[in-house]
Amino acid sequence: MFARTNLPEWAEFVVGGHEIRQGSFRESAEELARQKAIDPAAIERVKDDLDALDARVLPGFLAGSGSVVEKMADRWRDDVSSAKDMIDAIQADLRAFAQDNDLAHVIVVNLMSTEPVCSYFDNGILAQLSQEEREKRLEEWTRWEAFSQLLRSAAPPVVSASTLYAAAALELGCDFINFTPSLGATPPAFEELAKLKNARFMGNDGKTGETLMKSVLAPMFAHRNLNVMSWVGHNIFGNRDGVVLDDPRNKATKVASKNHLLTQILGYEPQTLVSIEYIKSLGDWKTAWDHIHFEGFLGTPMTLQFTWQGCDSLLAAPLVLDLARLTELARRKNFKGKMDFLACFFKSPIGVDEQGFVRQFEQLERWIHAMEE
Question: What is the rounded distance in angstroms from the CA atom of residue 242 to the CA atom of residue 282?
Answer without folding.
Answer: 10
